[in-house]
Design brief:
alpha/beta; single chain; Rossmann fold; Spo0b-associated Gtp-binding Protein, Chain: A; GTP binding; GTP1_OBG_dom; five-stranded mixed beta sheet; 18 strands; magnesium ion binding; GTP-binding
């Protein structure tokens, strides 16, 4: 089975909390703070693997969670970092944000990796909070939460050449005789339900990759049948080889086929219609083929047309050399036609948000969450550190700007505080 779209959730590990600890050594009754830092949380990393060709591994498991970092320990010992998760995907996989449908990264090279969810940072132990005026801090810092994301993985086949055309025109047969690929071949429509890849060796270390794209039908660009699923794979090819059944044995006119398929390409995306294209007039061993070929050349005198038969392998050499010549000096462009492409750009939640809603003053955000988890409200020094951080990060000034008065309540997560200057 060919699985080319997968929806998964990735959760990076939380950073370990810093420790509150004290030195207890012989002959040093007044030992100082010795709490170690927490370890960093593990990240979730996507990496390409040339041995994979589908997203089948993601069909059943929908959630992937990296390990948390260990908490800090006494004697200034750091907690162990959480282990990363490396998820292997095929070359040509797009990472898209599930909510916005924006492309986050394009894994279009062998061995390419992308950190999709960053692990949280470990919190600092109380040994890191000593100052000239604070010799014995009795508080530590909590670890940060790891990133959590819902993403869509979408595979788009990477190939030099894409074979396009109506069903049953001989694309799979052509691929089977010019390469070592063994696609399913039968005399009925839609034998090919997934893209097949084959390598064509041209001698002296020269070769190119051909993709047999499943047959298109009218309305494919509007999603008729499996149109969008098939068309997405054509985006990656450098050139297209339009395979036409010149015999007309399916009851279709090859001239009309040529027009209709190109209309579907243009309707899907204008860039696809501008892709370099060769025409292969197939099934020339059947009656009526030469007459149709003559009509085709008369209507399109400027097109480069290669005629032959995939079934008998007659005159295929000219086609292969024509493809090789067309690929010469043609750069590979990693194209994607998705709505928006935002490589290595992640929407980050604000660290601190101060607002007034329904008459209530609210303070929230990831930084505030971490600060609250780090605060021991029964400890005077810890509470003073909490207040200093609020003031240093402009929370008090923002509350004043919103018109807060002394004695009014400020809600920070599940806590309610009274505001005093």
């Amino acid at each position: 089975m060919f699985i080319d779209v997968a929806h998964i959730k990735v959760i990076a590990g939380k950073g370990g909390d810093g420790a509150v600890a004290w030195r207890r050594e012989k002959y040093e009754p007044a030992g100082g703070p010795a709490g170690g830092d927490g370890g960093n949380g593990g990240s979730v990393i996507l990496q390409t693997d040339t041995g994979l060709h589908t997203l089948m591994d993601f069909r059943y498991q929908k959630e992937y969670r990296a390990k948390n970092g260990e908490n800090g320990r006494s004697k200034k010992q750091f907690g162990k970092d959480g282990e990363d998760i490396i998820l292997k995907v095929p070359v040509g996989t797009l990472i898209k944000d599930e909510k916005t449908d924006h492309v986050i990264a394009d894994l279009n090279e062998a061995g390419k990796a992308y950190t999709i969810a960053q692990g949280g940072r470990g919190g600092r132990g109380n040994a890191k909070f000593t100052t000239s005026t604070r010799q014995a801090p009795s508080f530590a810092q909590a670890g940060s939460m790891g990133e959590e994301r819902e993403i869509c993985l979408e595979l788009k086949v990477l190939a030099d050449v894409g074979l396009i055309g109506f069903p049953n025109v001989g694309k799979s047969t052509l691929l089977s005789v010019v390469s070592a690929a063994r696609p399913k071949i039968a005399n009925y429509h839609f034998t090919t339900l997934q893209p097949n890849l084959g390598v064509v060796a041209m001698g002296q270390g020269q070769s190119f990759v051909v993709a047999d794209i499943p047959g298109l039908i009218e309305g494919a660009s509007q999603g008729v049948g499996l149109g969008h699923d098939f068309l997405r794979h054509i985006e990656r090819t450098r050139i297209l080889v339009h395979v036409l059944d010149m015999s007309g044995q399916e009851g279709r006119d090859p001239l009309d086929d040529y027009v209709k398929i190109n209309e579907e390409l243009a309707n899907y995306h204008e860039k696809l219609a501008q892709r370099p294209q060769l025409v292969f007039a197939n099934k020339m061993d059947l009656p009526g083929s030469q007459e149709n070929l003559d009509r085709f050349k008369a209507k399109y005198p400027d097109l480069k047309v290669f005629a032959g038969s995939a079934a008998t392998t007659k005159d295929l050499t000219q086609l292969l050399y024509g493809i090789q010549e067309a690929l010469k000096d043609l750069p590979y462009e990693s194209l994607t036609f998705d709505q928006e492409y935002v490589e290595e750009e992640k929407e980050k939640a604000p660290g601190i948000e101060v607002k007034k809603e329904n008459g209530r003053f609210l303070v929230q955000g990831p930084y505030i969450d971490k600060l609250l988890r780090s605060t021991y409200f029964d400890d005077r020094e810890s509470l003073r550190y909490f207040q200093e951080n609020l003031r240093k990060n402009g929370v008090v000034d923002k509350l004043r700007d919103l018109g807060i008065q002394e004695g009014e309540s400020v809600f920070i997560n599940d806590y309610e505080f009274e505001f005093f200057e």
